[in-house]
Amino acid sequence: MRRLTYLVAVSIDGYIAGPSDEVDFFPSSDAYAAWMLEEYPDVLPSLGRTQVGLTDAPNRHFDTVVMGRRTYEPGLALGMASPYPHLRQYVVSSTQEELSADVTIVRDDPLALVRGLKAEDAPLDVYLAGGSRLAATVLPEIDRIVVKRYPVVAGAGISAFGGAPFAPVSFDLTDLTTFPGGNAVLVYDRI
Length: 191
Hints:
By secondary structure, the chain is of the alpha/beta class. It has one domain: Dihydrofolate Reductase, subunit A (3-Layer(aba) Sandwich), CATH 3.40.430.10. The chain is globular. The longest helix has 10 residues. Helix 3 links the parallel strand 3 and strand 4. The protein starts with a strand and ends with a strand. It has five helices and ten strands; from the N terminus they run E-E-H-H-E-H-E-E-H-E-H-E-E-E-E. One of its GO terms (biological process) is riboflavin biosynthetic process. One of its GO terms (molecular function) is 5-amino-6-(5-phosphoribosylamino)uracil reductase activity. It comes from Mumia zhuanghuii. This is Dihydrofolate reductase.
């Protein structure tokens, strides 16, 4: 069985975006950016892959992406109805219209979706790109959380698991990579 991995950027105080979905406050070092491009080229949308010369880079970790409507919308604003053509794409939304044959809109039961994807016989895992409410909904199926910790305090915003009830779930820290400038990548696996 393959894993569902929530790969998420967070501030020191645990926010994935500002109160109005701002993400431009996350600082990055050159070393961190280079490492991310090498280690996780599959999580970069096609526009970003083209800009950094990774158009034909093989997927290292994932062959499928699951995202919520609010995670999908920024790509639409840039004219990308299929932001991850190198991955199978699923958008969980009851309101999003179908805009690309390459993107499957899932209107109900995201837990059933991820359970089905995890049960597939495939060599690569499933990437949960967000958002926070979707992450809270599918938390029972998240096997790995890759936290991209940025050296900034947001003060307020959208939490990594928005709307989740108080129900602690234990994960084990299995890898930690730090970078000059304060960025860190922490990998947690479900116990």
